[in-house]
């Protein structure tokens, strides 16, 4: 057994245990706070575990993304990007409180514009206008890519929409499992049936046969999760799983494009056997906005 495979067997279960612990915390905090008047919420405070998960992983992912940008001579301001990302996660969590909802739109705009303005201010303090556009654009892009996608995942977790899918711990687990089982199905399907390369110049190991197998497995996972989700029947869960599985694969290809441009194999080395934080979270992050839209429609 090679070193990479051995590390995957060691650290993979540890990651799953950590994720399970945070999801259980998320579930039980909401149940324990049902009926409380904290922040005018009577249905329970949701998203605590998801918020902790994002606040731990997204700053690391933001720094990894900034490192990729720097290789291409785009040097975002890391502290500003991390602060903006964490602020967007907090904003998404606060949307569950009625007292915050009237100022939700204006505060969202303030965060986004604030990241741009603070980047410009930071550049002006250096008294150097050279590559100012690169620094500002890189900072805003890092914030919107990771912080913006995290916002959708967080807001979906606490979403309350009568007659539609209501946010819950199960919803987040459904997204994460659907995306990751797409990866598993694509890998196994590619190994067994793969003949036709998906995108030769970008990811030569991915095949159309593997993608189809991954999407089919995602549809099965989506249908299995559906009974746990309010207002979601099994066939809608299957459709959701197939779409989100496909989008998750697109997220993986998006990060592959950035890594190929930067000429690196992994976004980082923080998790032995898996690479960087972005290598794990690229698929569910891009899937989150699409999941938010689909759940709003379904």
Structural description of this entry:
The protein has 298 residues and is mainly alpha-helical. Helices cover 71% and strands 3% of the residues. It is built from nine helices and two strands; from the N terminus they run H-H-H-H-H-H-E-E-H-H-H. Strands 1-2 form a two-stranded antiparallel sheet. Strand 1 and strand 2 (203-207) form a beta hairpin. Helix 4 (104-125) packs antiparallel against helix 5. The chain is globular and about 60 Å long. The protein starts with a helix and ends with a helix. The model is unreliable at 37-41 (pLDDT under 50).
Oligomer: single chain
The total of beta strands comes to 2
Strand order of the largest sheet: 1-2
Unreliable stretches covering 5 or more consecutive residues: 37-41
Q: What would the average pLDDT be, to the nearest integer? A: 86
Helix content: over 70%
The number of helices is 9
Cα distance, first to last residue?
Answer: 45 Å
Note the beta-strand portion.
Answer: under 5%
Structural class by sheet pairing and helices: mainly alpha
Q: Quick one: overall form?
A: globular
Largest sheet: 2 strands, antiparallel
